[in-house]
Specification:
Helices cover about 35% and strands about 25% of the residues. It is α/β, with parallel strands linked by helices. This is VWFA domain-containing protein.
Length: about 350
């Protein structure tokens, strides 16, 4: 992009007529650009009218044929200069501008704790490649859609740990979620109540207008020191809303491939009743995800339910460039006036 002329003679640069420079402008009065073809048309019409109606003087010449000389083209220079002057005036009237718009976004934000099950049952492959990886992928997409919301991560199996505190450092959150893996918690099991307790402890002192916990699990509570129902009541007391997502199908589900290359299956069942009661007690909602598309839709719906209000402040810095083309027009006008007093102009035709 060509800079605004700071020097008194910066406008005297042919780069102002490059196509890329002209395309970079916003034109306030573009109607004048559509009128540009009229300028050469008017000069053509003037020439045809003059050729047809101008007065002619009969003069006797000696017999012979007049020879063309290149200097006869010079008489068209004044008209060409004036046409350029008119074209540049049109460009100036079109008001070329460049607008530098700065958008500042602000939001009160909400606090969200993602509580993710990493127990052995999350290795089941009814989701591709498995339940845990599908949940991680949806969590990453969910984070991508947030703005100025503090988000934290809790993981659990037989025990529960806070993996990331509430933060707006989304790059850190993405790296943290990507590093979640099986066996990162030695004690296997499903300590849903303890995981909710850790999340509530992170959220309870927050002063934001909305505090949310999103629990993703595929099993019933089998460990921990806190009952899920007690944790849900505790969340309600601290105005924390809990959304529970039950992930996985019931029944016979693919688990692994044995030495013979055959798929092995296990029977599994989701404790849907428990997850529903947790969500109901904490003013949230329960969702059931049996496919990757269903899980994606659940996160989309939660994203809409817990959308923070974003305020935008727009600052527009506008610079006019019409004076550059107007200066060029004045130069061509002065040149035309000078040429009117030279041999290039036929005084008999004026």
């Amino acid at each position: 992009m060509f800079p605004f002329p700071d020097n008194a003679f910066d406008w005297f640069d042919l780069d102002w007529f490059r196509l890329a420079t002209l395309q970079s402008f916003e034109w306030i009065n573009p109607i004048y650009l559509y009128l540009l073809p009229l300028v050469p048309f008017l000069f053509l019409l003037r020439w045809l009218t003059t050729l047809r109606f101008r007065r002619k003087l009969d003069v006797a010449f000696f017999e012979g044929k007049a020879k063309w000389h290149w200097s006869s083209i010079l008489r068209y220079i004044p008209d060409t200069i004036f046409a350029l002057f008119a074209l540049l005036v049109m460009v100036a009237l079109a008001r070329p501008q460049r607008i530098n718009e700065i958008i500042e976004q602000s939001s009160e934000g909400i606090d969200i704790m993602l509580v993710l099950d990493t127990s052995g049952s999350m290795e089941l492959k009814d989701f591709k490649p498995n339940r845990l990886e599908a949940a991680k992928e949806m969590a990453l997409r969910f984070i991508k859609g947030r703005f100025q919301d503090r988000i934290g991560v809790v993981v659990f199996a037989g025990d529960a740990y806070s993996l990331a505190p509430l933060t707006t450092d989304y790059d850190l959150l993405r790296e943290t979620i990507k590093e979640i893996h099986f066996k990162m918690i030695p004690n296997d099991g499903t300590a849903i109540g303890s995981a909710l307790g850790v999340a509530i402890n992170r959220l309870r002192e927050a002063v934001t207008k909305s505090k949310v916990c999103i629990l993703i699990s595929d099993g019933e509570n089998t460990g921990g020191n806190i009952e899920p129902a007690v944790a849900a009541k505790l969340a309600h007391a601290f105005n924390i809303r809990i959304y529970t997502i039950g992930i996985g199908e019931d029944g016979r589900v693919p688990y692994d491939i044995n030495e013979k290359g055959e798929v092995t299956y296990v029977n599994t069942r989701l404790d849907e009743t428990n997850l529903r009661e947790i969500a109901q007690a904490a003013d949230g909602q329960f969702f059931r995800a049996t496919t990757t598309n269903a899980l994606q839709e659940i996160f989309r719906r939660i994203n809409l339910l817990e959308k923070s209000d974003i305020k935008e402040l727009r600052f527009r810095n506008t610079k006019d460039y019409y004076q550059i083309y107007l200066k060029w027009a004045m130069v061509f006008l002065l040149i035309w006036l000078l040429l009117k007093n030279t041999f290039l102009t036929n005084a008999l035709e004026d």
